[in-house]
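Escalation from tier 1.

The customer reports that the assembly of two entities below gives different structure tokens on two consecutive runs. Tier 1 could not reproduce it. I'm attaching the input and our single run for tier 2 to review.
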Amino acid sequence: MINAWTAVVLAFVLWYDAAIALAADRVASFYSEVVPGVFVHEGEVAETSAANRGDIANIGFVVGDDAVAVIDTGGSVTEAQEALAAIRAITDKPIAYAINTHMHPDHLFGNQVFKAAGARIIGHERLAPALAARAESYRASMREQLGPELADAVTITPPDEGVSAERTLDLGNRPLVLKAWDTAHTDNDLTVFDERTRTLFAGDLVFMKHLPVLDGSLLGWLRQTPMLEAIPAERVVPGHGPATAPWPDAIEPQTAYLEALARDVRVAIASGQRLSETAETAAKAEAEAFELSEDYRRRNATAAYAELEWE
Amino acid sequence: MKTLPSGMGRNLAARWGRPSQVALVAAALSFGVTSVSLAASEPSPEEAAAAADSAWTDLKFDLFGDRKLVEGTDVVSLEAPKRAADPAIVPMTIRLDPEKDIRKVTLVIDENPSPVAGTFTLAKGAGVTELSTRVRVNAYTDVHVVAEAADGTLYVTKQFVKAAGGCAAPAAKDPEVAAREMGRMKLRDFGEVEGAADRREAQLQIRHPNNSGLQKDQVTLLYIPAHFITDLDVERGGQPVFSMTGGISISEDPNFRFTYEGDSAEPFHVKAVDTEGKVFEETFPVTAS
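Tier 1 run:
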């Protein structure tokens, strides 16, 4: 017969094993390998909160013969630490690069973790000035959204190198093509193309499920969409939404929304409708086909109006 | 800036004093109180704004001394979003009773670092009875509009706006375009206001960063100097329509939509001066629409 003490110890051992297994599970399942050598972590389609630790964007990494490159570093230090542990459980090759697809906190608040792990941080040549100009307001807004504990752990870490047009990184028999875009989602969008598997990491130049967010130029985004579509990728990793989707079909709903936004705002401006009314109504139906439309559609319409009234 | 009330400087200093006071209190609290209980005791934004009503008491005194402000009339009204879509571009529409001969309008965003967004002087008989602009809003705040009639009576109205971070937000989404186009102006005439044959409506847009100076240069760790339009004069046919002395709370690419009286035969002339002494001046020929 088992005495009480043994039962307690046994219960503890079972609980401890389960906890370890759970943690290991979490590490093992953080990234999934979408195609050989390409791993993606799917962020939640949501606004940043303390509960989700800023884990709302898709982040990934690519493994070459010699080295690893991570693409975006997550929305908090804790998310990045979890990502790093997950990578280390998969490969012990050095993490040579951490690539930032653009300036938004959900994509690069984990930079410091990868920099400490030895990675060189690479972004669009305009990323450093854009981040510098916004550091104060990001610190303030992220304190609100992530909560002080998670936000204060972040040291906003700018890129070590900027890309001005195109640059190829070699991970060892595995070229990654980095392309810097003109102003679109932001003024510092950068895409990463893995030639071997024809996988395109589009950053927030491609939104799926999550309403596209305009923080750059609507006209620039629409103008460059055909160039994006022309990239000979088989699949895309969008900045938000599913881990991967077929390319270029994946971008169609976004383009439909952006075109509707430009159309509605142009009509509103031409007819003398005010900004306040236009913000309420522009591309409302198209926005509602996405999640988080109530959070972003008025802001997008405001930005579009302020841009298009100078046409 | 010269026509801004003398109390502005003091107020500005008082505002800048606040963050350090907050920091001190927070530091003192952090010794004995966990962040959890601190968060729990934090008032809601509405409560905080209500408690901060003293901001307006001080501002009112700085701007108008102990003059009486008439509340609760239809002489002046303010249309503003309850929750701003973008805190850097918050549309405000001020409507004035055409019967009251209002000559001066002061737009005050109580909780902004520089609360007076703009002071508008309206010319006698110019017909400016509706005026819209866009402002930055830095915190949950009351927005006050004070309208002064020709007889010196002051009328006030207010609205609470939920927005945060508009002043610290960087000016331009595309700084290269902003720098290239600074000073460009557009003037649109919308024609007759429906139901008011003697009243027309126009909109003036000026490309200018109207930089609030609250962003820190991350290399020098100094605040980027404010660069904004201080004075604006709008005339029509050689006669003044309105003028504005503006602060840093007016949004990037300042935008003013206003009514005016008379037919559209006379051209508009606009002159704007910024903090660097740059003068932007343009005459807009008549384009009846």
